[in-house]
Design goal:
Length: 106
């Protein structure tokens, strides 16, 4: 719900933060590929709008990335990150929630 509100308000820095958290949830649920796609999309949004992550989140995020890469293998993890960078935020949000995507926020 929060992600949908951010998507509708064009607060793309907040969308990136929400995607990072969704990625962490996906990783914890055993879907590191879904996590990596969400993280790739978040990274692309952060670059696009010049919104770096905050220092408090960097430590857990670095650990989550390392764990997902170790689980998937470096090449598969990089491929999933790259795929996420090419997807708009609405589509990745729809994919991760199981709803059809519409529009573009990235």
């Amino acid at each position: 719900v929060a992600l949908a509100l951010f998507l509708d308000s064009d607060e793309l820095g907040d969308v990136a933060s929400a995607l990072e958290l969704i990625g962490e949830l996906r990783r914890a649920e055993g879907s590191p590929a879904g996590a990596a796609r969400a993280w790739g999309c978040a990274a692309a949004l952060r670059v696009r709008v010049g919104a770096p992550s905050n220092a408090r989140d960097r430590a857990w995020f670095a650990t989550a990335l390392e764990e997902a890469a170790a689980f998937m293998g470096a090449d598969a993890f990089e491929a999933a990150l790259k795929a996420g960078r090419r997807v708009d935020a609405r589509s990745i949000a729809a994919e991760l929630s199981g709803r059809p995507g519409h529009g573009s926020a990235a």
